[in-house]
Amino acid sequence: MMQYDVKASTLANTGSIGYATRLKGLVISYTAGTGSVVLKDGGSSGTIRFSFTAPATTNGAVNIIIPGEGIRFDTSIYGAITDATVTVFYG
Question: Which residue segments constitute the domains of the chain, with CATH numbers given?
Fold first, then answer.
């Protein structure tokens, strides 16, 4: 397996990591019932590669580790985020 650096970036509302990469993990802090995170490959009209909708009961946070080599984003990671903040780990 090839060794490479893992980076982190925090996104809120909308934001992007502007190059091809692999999503390795996320930490999502959300508002109950309204929080959502959608990560797309290639901008706002791109292919959805990951989505999360907050449970209706309580505010909270979740730590998600993507197994194996992660989720491949061929162009960029674009985040459409509502009532949440997400830290993405990628490389």
Answer: 7-90 (2.60.120)
